[in-house]
Write a structure and sequence with these properties.
The chain is mainly beta. It contains six helices and 49 strands. Among the domains are: 244 residues, Jelly Rolls; 82 residues, Carboxypeptidase-like, regulatory domain (Immunoglobulin-like, Sandwich). It has a 16-stranded mixed β-sheet that branches. Strands 8-7-10-5-12-21-14-19-16 form a nine-stranded antiparallel β-sheet, with no helix packed on it. Helix 2 links the parallel strand 33 and strand 34. The longest helix is centred in the C-terminal third of the chain and has 12 residues.
């Protein structure tokens, strides 16, 4: 019988003379001490009419001796901690009775894997089962990720059959993508997906070979219904992810109602312009479930809401806009949500993100989702930079193939890239990939990227997070370089990012023409928002294209920002330019989300002038300064924050001899 084995036989659990409902996970669930399978979330839907239920864990004790044991923590629907499950049994059920006390909605059981004994590095595991008893549903909600993290299932450990069966609740969608990582051995973890009788759909496999990310894409005019997902011949470990983050139940007939389709439109307040935006959706009944959605390029989107719940919707569009809140119910057929502009880019300036990842390396989201997020966060362009090294870049190219069709020159641009990844340094190739071997030096990788650079297809390279602990030799390697086009600021753990600024200034003082760029290094569009650090490039009258963006990055016609616009000229010359005046006229214009304390003019690494802003958010100033050979830039700072809110690239000073 489905979800029922003789060895766990409880026959019927009788309460008040009636058999109670049981939902049980497959044999078996799995967490361990590695990052890939460190955390698992299970969810329990409790209807308004349910007063109590029991949650039980079979073999809750860790498989090996652990320095820090696994933790099982139950959270109530409003996100507050309800109970720590602190009675771990070995080869037996640990049962916990839960009084609902009116807290209906979605509860969450968070399982964190064990850690090895101090000083030891071996992997410590915990295989277990979970079941609920009572009028509730037990389910999981797989995120898209499968490679670096994700929801993992193991082969039977407790006598169950090597068959895992799930019920997938699909709302009114026309496309669903299931991501898998299966054992390389053929014939294992065989996937069968059965549609409801009323649904006509096509299924297509794609992605990478077994052992890497594969996907099963389902399309149809309306896929709504309960789908049966069966995994047969389960051996070893396999991972499951779903791009649309659908609910996957451990029962054939969920109590949870099918979510209602609600249309949403996002616009700029006082301008009546439809724009893509990010929507964060929550309620007192669903705070345990992260729900983030994005409207499309036309500002149109779809939400799937449960009936009887008042949802709070926060619409946002990056730091150039002020987030706004509205409330919605499933009973609405449609509603609109505004964002309010607080910064307005001057003509010719375009903002982007130079560093992002997808499910094809160690990111959480698919390429299509990262494109959607970049638009919704108000970016004009972004670079897709999954990890790669040498010729092992099939996954990088697959991500490009999925994302690049979404590029719309003149409106929104996706740029293909690669994070060339070695134990000593990481470097982003922008608008290409490099086939140097993993043993290549940083200089060899830089040279290879610059050799690819042409007028028709400009290519550049950026040294990433030099003071991040995972790239231990990067600072010294940078000092040994003969040339370096770009260096990434504000994305490392060296004195809050200041160490890399000082390294950059050191390279400039050596005479290297190296420019600063920044990006989010986003691995998860929900928790690391694309564009929370931005690089702005100046194109003037040139169209928004990959080629023009890359040329602007190469030439330093840019500034970087965490919340302010900062324009800077020296004798009317933009950053990246060279001027020859000993006494130069410097002009600065700034507009900020945050109150600013000052704007500093930095010449060869020394502050030579400071404009006092005293908490203002808008400033325009001019000064004449005598400057020697070298470089000069501007940076805007908040009070008590050593990291600038915005910083320009330098203008170079070359005096006639």
């Amino acid at each position: 019988m489905r979800f029922f084995w003789a060895w766990v036989s409880i026959a019927l659990i009788v309460s008040f003379g009636w058999a109670q409902r049981i939902c049980q996970s497959p044999d078996s669930l799995y967490v361990d001490s590695t990052g890939a399978a460190r955390t698992m979330h299970l969810f329990i839907y409790v209807p308004p009419t349910t007063n109590e239920f029991t949650i039980a864990v079979f073999d809750q004790a860790d498989d090996e001796q652990a320095g820090q044991p696994s933790s099982f923590i139950l959270f109530a629907p409003d996100g507050s901690e309800a109970m720590k499950l602190t009675n771990p049994q070995s080869k037996a059920w640990s049962e916990y009775r839960i009084a609902v006390s009116g807290r209906w909605g979605i509860w969450r059981l968070t399982v964190n894997g064990p850690q090895p004994p101090q000083g030891q590095r071996q992997t410590v595991r915990n295989h277990f089962l979970v079941r609920t008893i009572g009028d509730v549903d037990l389910f999981v909600k797989p995120e898209p990720v499968v490679l670096a993290r994700g929801l993992r299932f193991a082969e039977p450990k407790f006598g169950g059959e090597p068959v895992h069966q799930f019920t997938v609740q699909v709302p009114e969608l026309t496309r669903v993508r299931f991501n898998f990582v299966r054992p390389r051995e053929e014939g294992t973890a065989e996937i069968q997906l059965k549609s409801p009788d009323s649904v006509n759909a096509e299924q297509r496999w794609g992605g990478l070979p077994r052992g890497s990310l594969e996907f099963l894409e389902v399309t149809g005019s309306n896929l709504q219904g309960l789908w049966e997902l069966t995994v047969k011949n389960v051996k070893g470990i396999y991972a499951l992810g779903i791009e649309q983050e659908l609910r996957v139940f451990f029962t054939g007939k969920p109590l949870m109602p099918m979510p209602t389709t609600v249309r949403v439109t996002t616009f700029v307040a006082d301008e009546n312009i439809l724009v893509p935006a990010r929507l964060d959706i929550t309620s007192p009944q669903t705070a345990t479930e992260t729900y983030v959605a994005f409207t499309d390029r036309n500002g149109l989107g779809t939400l799937f809401l449960l009936p009887g719940i008042v949802y709070r919707i926060t619409a946002s569009r990056g730091f150039e806009f002020e987030a706004q809140q509205v409330f919605a119910l499933a009973e609405f057929s449609a509603f609109s949500a505004p964002v309010r502009r607080i910064l307005k880019k001057p003509e010719g300036w375009y903002c982007g993100d130079t560093h992002s990842h997808t499910v094809y390396s160690d990111g959480n989201d698919t390429p299509a989702q990262m494109v959607e997020a970049a638009r919704g966060e108000g970016l004009d362009w972004f670079v897709l930079t999954d990890h790669g090294v040498g010729p092992v870049i099939q996954h990088v190219l697959t991500a490009h193939k999925e994302a690049l069709p979404s590029s719309e020159p003149g409106k929104f641009v996706v740029i293909a890239g690669e994070e060339f990844t070695t134990p000593n340094f990481h470097a982003n190739i922008i608008n290409g990939t490099v086939l140097e071997l993993p043993t290549a030096t940083l200089q060899q990788v830089v040279d290879a990227a610059l050799k690819m650079d042409t007028d028709e297809k400009p290519v550049t390279i950026k040294l990433n997070h030099p003071h991040w602990s995972g790239a231990p030799k990067a600072p010294q390697l940078a000092r040994e370089l003969k040339q370096l086009p770009l260096i990434e600021l504000w994305n490392d753990n060296g004195e809050g990012g200041k160490s890399t600024v000082l390294l950059w200034w050191e390279l400039l003082n050596k005479g290297m023409k190296v420019f600063a760029a920044t990006g989010t290094d986003s691995h998860n569009r929900k928790t690391s928002r694309l564009g929370h650090r931005r690089t702005y490039v100046y194109l003037g009258d040139l169209p928004l294209t990959t080629e023009n963006i890359v040329r602007a990055l190469k030439e330093g016609r840019s500034f970087i920002s965490r919340g302010a616009l900062l324009l800077f000229t020296v004798d009317n010359a933009l950053p990246g330019s060279t001027v020859g005046s000993r006494r130069a006229t410097i002009k600065v214009w700034a507009q900020s989300v945050h109150p600013l304390d000052r704007i500093e003019i930095v010449h060869n690494g020394k502050v030579v002038h400071s404009f006092a802003l005293n908490g203002n958010t808008l400033f325009e100033g001019e000064i004449s300064l005598e400057l020697g050979d070298g470089w000069v830039l501007a940076q805007a700072l908040r009070k008590d924050d050593q990291l600038p809110v915005a910083m320009t690239n330098p203008v170079f000073i070359r005096l006639a001899k």
